[in-house]
Specification:
This protein is α+β, with helices and mostly antiparallel strands. The mean pLDDT is about 95.
Length: about 400
């Protein structure tokens, strides 16, 4: 591994058009799981000027069975969509929660897919699709996340908090951030560049009000990043193109699943390719990515490595993973193969089958909408939410090794 280098990650806000789509898709996942914990959902969302379109496949007892909607179900779906857009804060001429057009094109899950996933006879429930999933953790931040991504998320989360609270009424929902850090001896040493582009109210692209917005953003950066990383050498690019009044789905179409690097590790780790939002936890794109993060985080927290990447692979309809791979990038205190064997020995993980993962992490619950903005990882495990961020395997791993 190189020890001295520059590295950059980006984030996008809850009002970014792709993130609007992700949040709508996950709000639909939560709605169906609240009705039926065994529901199957694959919900894609398109957002554009004054329009939200849903497409995909579902199966949900009491809501959508045998190709028929239960009375009131479609109205509840539309209400969920509009409430999600309202919560984000869109009340603009080009995208307004109350007046946007809505289309629901969800339909029944393919029977040929369902037969491979459903448990039957002596056959355990299989994976919802083939694929490879990665999890990652490192000791760059207290959240055991890559620092560049962690700070990028937190800049935008702070700005959103200030917008919702009224502290920064000149902000509108759409925003992007990017943080470049210089690493020395493998550790963050200095912030060399900060990029923030934020949608704003009328007139905040000129004169004193433009200066107010830029000083506000610099203040947020100073609150988020450790003081020792900022200096006179840090270069800021705040709304570098100038005016940013037209944003969100009115400025650019949004689709579910287009921000997978923002959702995961900001480019510091491989990504298997599958998106998370809109999918129920039988889809290993989601559940296996969560369990690999959980395992990698516990390994780093246990002091077994400073960096850890874990890969799992599955075949559609097959319950057992095809492979488990651990790489501590030369930072491990024990051999990587021994860590793999330790993971396999933990019975509570259920052999890392789809059912075992969901059972151990408690994933068959309506817990997904909060994941759809500011990252699925590095968040605080609280109650039923973000269970893959818990550190309850540390002692087990230490004992096994």
């Amino acid at each position: 591994m190189r020890s001295n280098y520059l590295f950059t990650s980006e984030s996008v806000s809850e009002g970014h058009p792709d993130k609007v789509a992700d949040q709508i898709s996950d709000a639909i996942v939560d709605l169906f799981l609240s009705k039926d914990p065994e529901a199957r959902i694959a919900c894609e969302t398109l957002t554009t000027t004054q329009l939200v379109v849903l497409a995909g496949e579902i199966r949900c007892k009491g809501v959508f069975e045998n190709g028929e909607w239960a009375p009131g179900a479609q109205a509840e779906i539309e209400r969920t969509v509009r409430e999600t857009v309202k919560r984000i804060g869109y009340e603009q001429d080009g995208f307004h929660w109350e007046t946007l057009r809505f289309e629901n094109n969800l339909h029944a899950q393919s029977a040929h897919i369902a037969q491979g996933v459903d448990a039957s006879g002596n056959k355990d429930e299989g994976a919802g699709d083939q694929g490879i999933m990665f999890g990652f953790a490192c000791d760059e931040t207290p959240d055991l996340m890559p620092a560049t991504l962690d700070y990028s998320h937190k800049i935008l989360a702070k700005m959103a908090h200030d917008r919702h609270s009224g502290r920064a009424p000149f902000l509108e929902p759409d925003a992007k951030s990017q943080v470049t850090l210089r690493f020395e001896h493998g550790k963050p040493a200095a912030a060399t560049a900060i990029v923030v582009s934020t949608q704003h109210g009328k007139g905040y692209d000129e004169g004193d009000r433009e200066s107010q917005l830029k000083e506000y953003v610099k203040g947020v950066v100073a609150e988020v990043l450790p003081a020792e990383l900022l200096s006179a050498e840090t270069v800021y690019h705040i709304n570098p193109t100038g005016s940013f009044e037209i944003g969100g789905p009115d400025g650019d179409a949004g689709l579910t699943g287009r921000k997978i690097i923002v959702d995961t590790y900001g480019g510091a780790s491989p990504h298997g390719g599958g998106a998370f939002s809109g999918k129920d936890p039988t889809k290993v794109d989601r559940s296996a990515a969560y369990i690999t993060r959980y395992l990698a985080k516990n390994i780093v927290a246990a002091g077994l490595a400073r960096r850890c990447t874990i890969q799992l692979a599955y075949a559609i309809g097959v319950s057992e993973p095809l492979s488990l791979y651990v790489d501590t990038h030369g930072t491990g205190s024990v051999d990587d193969a021994k860590i793999e064997e330790a993971i396999k020995s933990i019975k509570e993980l259920g052999g890392l089958t789809p059912r075992g993962i969901r059972t151990h992490l408690g994933l068959n619950k309506p817990i997904y909408r909060p994941t759809a903005a500011y990252g699925h990882f590095g968040r605080k495990a609280e109650g039923d939410f973000f269970p893959w961020e818990k550190l309850d395997l540390v002692d087990r791993l230490k004992a096994a090794l």
